[in-house]
Amino acid sequence: MFDRTSRYASLPAKTYRGTIQYAGRRVVPRLSGATPYVRYVVMQGDRLDTIAARYLGDPAQFWRICDSNEVIVPADLVREPGGVVLISGPQR
């Protein structure tokens, strides 16, 4: 149903009333202390997609950064210059 790099790729497909397909609920995972992190300091004008492109090699993987910071709304991470964003390494 979803591309393999999507945050929804591992969710089970469900069906409503026999015809409408949808993904099951996704819960933001808690990451273990063993996950390697980069600490990035937010600068004026930063966008999460450009940060993801720089550190993860793909702007569409911004959601991994959200998961690393246990944030639902991506804009919350780059709203304030000087804030620290944790970036976990790309998952293989």
In summary, what is this structure?
This protein has 92 residues and is α+β, with helices and mostly antiparallel strands.
Q: What do these coordinates show?
A:
The protein has 92 residues and is α+β, with helices and mostly antiparallel strands. The protein folds into 2 domains: 30 residues, no CATH class; 57 residues, Membrane-bound Lytic Murein Transglycosylase D, Chain A (Roll), CATH 3.10.350. It is 22% helix and 20% strand. Strands 1-2 form a two-stranded antiparallel ribbon. It starts with 12 loop residues before the first strand and ends with a strand.
Q: Which terms summarize this structure?
A:
single chain; 92 residues; alpha+beta; Membrane-bound Lytic Murein Transglycosylase D, Chain A; 2 domains; two-stranded antiparallel ribbon
| CATH topology grouping of the largest domain | Membrane-bound Lytic Murein Transglycosylase D, Chain A
CATH top level assignment of the largest domain? Alpha Beta
Low-confidence stretches: none
Give the N-to-C terminal Cα separation: 20 Å
Q: How many structural domains in the coordinates? A: 2
CATH superfamily of the largest domain: LysM domain
Mean pLDDT: 82
Number of helices: 3
Please give the radius of gyration in angstroms. 15 Å
Structural category is alpha+beta
Query: What proportion of the residues form beta strands (DSSP E)?
Result: 15-25%
* Total strand segments: 4
Q: Report the principal-axis shape.
A: elongated
What's the main sheet like?
A: 2 strands, antiparallel
What strand order characterises the main sheet? 1-2
Oligomeric state of the chains? single chain
CATH architectural type of the largest domain: Roll
Secondary-structure element string: EEEHHHE
Percent in helix? 10-25%
